[in-house]
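[agent] plan:
  1. take the single chain provided in the ticket
  2. run structure prediction with default settings
  3. attach structure tokens to the ticket
  4. add a short note for the reviewer (M.T.)
[agent] executing step 1
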Amino acid sequence: MAIKIKRGTQITFEAKDDAEALRTARDRLGPDAVILSSRQVKTGGFLGLFRRTVLQVSAAVLEEDRRSESDAEKKERLAAFQKLLEIKQAMVSPGEGVSGSESTVLDGMPFRGDQALSAAGVYSPRSPKVKKEVPIPETAPDGVEFSPKGLALASEKAAPAAEPPEKVSPEKLQNEVNEIARRLDLVLKRLETERSEPAPPPPPSDEGKDILAKLLAADVSETHARSLVERFRDDPQGRNFLQWLGKKISVAAQESWEALGGRKVMLIGPTGVGKTTTIAKLAAIHSLWKKKKVFLLTADTYRIAAVKQVETYSKILGIPMDVVDDPRHIGPVLEKTAGADLVLLDTAGRSQRDGARIEEMRALYLAFQPDAVHLVLAANMKYRDMLDVVKRMGVVPISRVIFTKTDETTTYGALLNILLDFDRPVSFITTGQNVPNDIEVASGMRLAEMLLGEERDAGSV
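[agent] step 2 finished; step 3 output follows
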């Protein structure tokens, strides 16, 4: 897919911030305008005094020349996408560097096929650290063979039949939000009780004591830990706690397409949890493996860098994207997605304490009418911080939970607490930057193994 600037559409202008830059570009060039570059400059003033800082912005409308791609070219796209994630990780990891040629990928430059690839078709990370090469497996985590035959089979697989979702009214939305608030209130009262009242005596059996100790050591809430031990002890089918717990953890589905929860999927979450990267991984898996028509949307118009990031992902993966700059104007944007099998909406990763942005998310939900809302939480967050996120972002109905950065913590009790507190299934977990190895359809057994310290190698799941 070749991408070039449409003749006569490139413009340069000044704006006070990122949001104004996007609005100006779309006002002057139409809804298909994209930001090519932006930089801060000093302007105005007198004799060098009273100068103000503005953004100097370049924008244009892009043309795309689409043609059918071979499976080898799609593997190259996956390799380029993985490299992009490795570069972004290197930029924030001490001791790792990014070369000038690598940094151009972050600016949306085309992937160059002449760059060195490993034997498996995956870039070898450019880093002074010794890293284990991660080949693209012949079989995807959910069983789709990564070969011409497998891709053909995947293309024949139709989306699960479902009735058109009922349009959510503000009244129905408020009822669902009230249910989240009710559950949150019960959780906070329970935590207050745990602090003020002495703990009940430990379970009588030695096995019960060992299980309780493991759960508490993993930061499972004491109330949940004791309840699980009692339920296991009273269950006549309970023989092995690990197996029993794996079956009790609620998961969305066993296969990635079903775990998404529908055609229109909205991801919400606080800043820094890896929401945009997770959306891009889901887009890569379903467009390159499943051969689904995927459309990316972003509503994060507060940072030009966020829009450019999604644009870069869409170019590398060869899928369309658009920006929702105002929930009231979402109609024409949704018309463009009419032929897509999957529409993934990325929302602004603002702080959960930013009340104005949270209300905008509510308006966006009502305008977009998603089939499923996935709350993205980082596994290395504290339990109390997770509860605060639910409190602030519970202005929309949360359908499922995605846990990211599970490789950045050693205790997973907070994850189990959240699932038990709000009775929502977990859909996906991510464990790093490699694609596709480091995103998985959530498995109850996998989470139970992580929680109890009996985790298998991630590549075997």
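[agent] step 4 note for reviewer: Confidence is low (pLDDT under 50) at residues 92-163, 457-461.
[agent] ticket updated
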